[in-house]
Amino acid sequence: MKYRPEIDGLRALAVVPVIFFHAGLPFFSGGFVGVDIFFVISGYLITSIILSEMQAGTFTLARFYERRARRILPALFLILFLSFIAAFFILRPVDMKEFSASMAAAATFLSNVFFWRHSGYFDGLAELKPLLHTWSLGVEEQYYILYPLFLIAAWRLGRKKILFMLAALFVLSLTAAHLGALNHSSGVFFLLPTRCWELLLGIFAAFYLSRGQVKQFSQKTNTILGLLGLVMIAAGIILFDENTLTPGLPLLLPTLGTVLIILFAKEGTIPARLLSFQPIVLIGLISYSAYLWHQPLLAFAKYQANGMISPVILAALCALTFILSYFSWRWIEQPVRRKNHFTRRFIFTASAAGIVFFTALGAAGYMTQGFEKVWLARHNEITQTTYLLIKRDPRFDNYGAGEERWGFYDDGACRFNKPELSQQTKERILACAQEHGPGIAVIGDSHAIDLYGAIVSRDNKKFLFGLTKGGCQLGTTEEHRCAYSLFLSLIQENPAIFSEVIFEQSGQYLLQRQKDVRAYAKNPDKAEETPYMEEFIQPISEYLARLGKYNRVLWFGPRLNIGIKETDILDHGCNYDFTPRAGFQETYDAIDIYLEDKVKTLENVFYLSQNKAFAYSFPEDFMNCSEIYWSDGSHLSAEGEKRFGARFDLINR
């Protein structure tokens, strides 16, 4: 296959946006499409190689897998090893345990499956996962295993039938990907069946260019179509963001742009000259190493800095990524690819040994709870006590439900909390209303889970129902997965089953920059100027107003986000006087004032400030060396549910 420097330039155009996107640099909100560009390139290159060898009768699986092993594994093993060393000294046991599992998954070509089961790509915590980026390697490695086998089996059928089968697979894959993206399914993002349509675009380009006679276009036409491809890619990088349906139909923009460049950015055209510019080609040559290096560097730095990392440091880490990438490309990738240095037997033996080693190391980390005993031995008594307190009521254990699980209490009768409103649950509610008369309903997101726990821990009302689910915020894109509409229909059909509905939702989703309250903490004196998300607040008001036609409704105001994370707690110890981050109290006081005025216009809907009702006071209301009352900076622990629930009687107020 003839070398095309513009393809290396295209690799550069893929890797740079990905790195800058993960660094959070401006103008790269859609930088994640770089991975989609890589998929198209991979489909094109792999198919071009296989087709040329099959047509010449020289293709063998052994040689194909040898090339893939030389290309993929040495640099990957280097990054896995160095990341493990860094993780061992930086990560806490709970995170080291997850890292160990992800390392084993990366070594066994199942990284995409692992992160499908454990993480969303755009989740806030995802950026702290050092090996998150290896999900795309999992997709490609599975493609490398399956695709050659398909071509070998189908080759005798001829090109037309092969292309027909691939076209059918393309339609099925793209349809499933788009429908899955509409339904916010994380599986479509991470898994090969809903990503293979992107690989297939490159495959189709390779089949087209491998024909005996390819239609020749004028230099002007090639230039225009090649430049159009560049514009389409740039548009995706600049205009897309985490709300873009991924990997749905919108991704046709940058991926078809990539196909246009492959087909029409021919030697001598303007796009080919741009992409063949030597510095750009060099970035393309080291792009694989750059992709491997960037995420661990950024993730460990953000983890160490507790997310508070300056743009200057992020830019420096991006620069360091390219420096380290050059050396790993020069001294790891390049030598291993030279067959006169390492035989096929050595490559296969070393690859198998590396897979076994990293899988075993990952399994050891997972089974020892992230080398927990070693971690504890490295720290002082206060840190050990603090860690064990946090572990007793883990951050990720059902948003603060501890051993007593107040937030998910179910007495088997009429005091129960559910995340869904099934037909069985409806029948149970109606039976409880029949037996005990009108009950109390608590609805909302993960904060409402805490609220239900606080109420049920102190009140003995016989009919107390909760409909609460993490991530169920009214007015957000997640709402479709929640039961708000079903609950309203239930109330409309049976208006006498509840005497009151209590609603609570996290306050961070009511702020303009919902995931960064710190933006308003920088100037506490102007907290009253906090910009609110009316597109979130208005749907809540409208929904509660509809409920208010049938029941008394209480909007229990958003809980103060104190902004104290596990890393803060472990850094300072359980005997530290913890207080909310500067400006947070003022911000949430301003939210209370704003929402209380908003609710005054609604009939039969009332507002109560949670922060006044529970009278949070710090540091005593955060933790001591015997108890912790918050499971993170936003949710309550089981002890916190009981502690604050005892302060205010929401039922008999």
- Would you report the number of β strands? 6
Structural category? mainly alpha
Strand content: under 5%
User: Which consecutive residue ranges, at least 5 long each, have pLDDT under 50?
Assistant: 394-405, 513-528
Largest sheet: 6 strands, parallel
Helical percentage: 55-70%
- CA-CA gap between termini: 79 Å
Helix count equals 27
Overall form: globular
Q: Main traits of this protein?
A:
single chain, 653 residues, 6-stranded parallel beta sheet
Fold topology:
Layout: H1 5-23, H2 33-56, H3 61-90, H4 93-107, H5 111-118, H6 135-154, H7 159-182, H8 186-190, H9 196-209, H10 219-239, H11 252-264, H12 270-275, H13 278-285, H14 287-304, H15 311-337, H16 344-367, H17 372-377, H18 381-392, E1 415-418, H19 423-436, E2 439-444, H20 446-456, E3 464-468, H21 484-493, E4 498-504, H22 518-521, H23 534-548, E5 552-556, H24 566-572, H25 584-599, E6 605-608, H26 610-613, H27 638-645
Parallel strand pairs: 1-3, 2-3, 2-4, 4-5, 5-6
Question: Could you walk me through the main structural features you see in this protein, from its secondary elements to its overall organization?
Answer:
The protein is mostly helical and 653 residues long. 59% of the residues lie in helices and 5% in strands. It has 27 helices and six strands. The protein has a six-stranded parallel β-sheet with strand order 1-3-2-4-5-6, sandwiched between helices. Helix 1 (5-23) packs parallel to helix 14 (287-304) and helix 2 (33-56) packs across helix 9 (196-209). The longest helix has 30 residues, at 61-90. The chain is globular and about 85 Å long. The N and C termini lie far apart (79 Å). 43% of the residues are buried. The model is unreliable at 394-405 and 513-528 (pLDDT under 50).
